[in-house]
Design brief:
Strand order of the largest sheet: 1-7-6-5-4-3-2
CATH architecture: 2-Layer Sandwich
Shape: globular
CATH superfamily: START domain
Number of strands: 7
Distance between the termini: 38 Å
Amino acid sequence: MAAVSESIHIDRPVADVFGYLDDPHNHATITPSIDNIRNIQPLDNGGKRLEYTYTMVGVGIDGELVEQVHEEGERMTFEMRGRLTGEIDLQFAAEDGGTSVTYSAEYDIPSRVLAAAASALVERYNRRELQTTLENLRAELEESG
């Protein structure tokens, strides 16, 4: 299992940042490798279940995200199902008049061969992806505000 985690400060209130990320379509806007978000369904816990297509090194991978934890203004935790399995955890905290967002992901690489041959490459790719996603989130929220 590989893991990456990054944090960023956004000059917007927690409610704005959480609300933005609570709309699954916005994840496709800020995450470069997400091509498609579809079949969004609300869950009893306030979260959502959805299907997505993620492109990694030119290969489209379909999967499902199920929000296991939905704590308004504090946390969203998603279980990744499909060829990519793992967990995505988003944590929000008020900080210096804005919001600190920590985005963590733990995931299994889909193939034992890929895992053995390229796990370091995939980890670097996913770390860059996560950094770009957080920078895009900040740009979307700070420029729109």
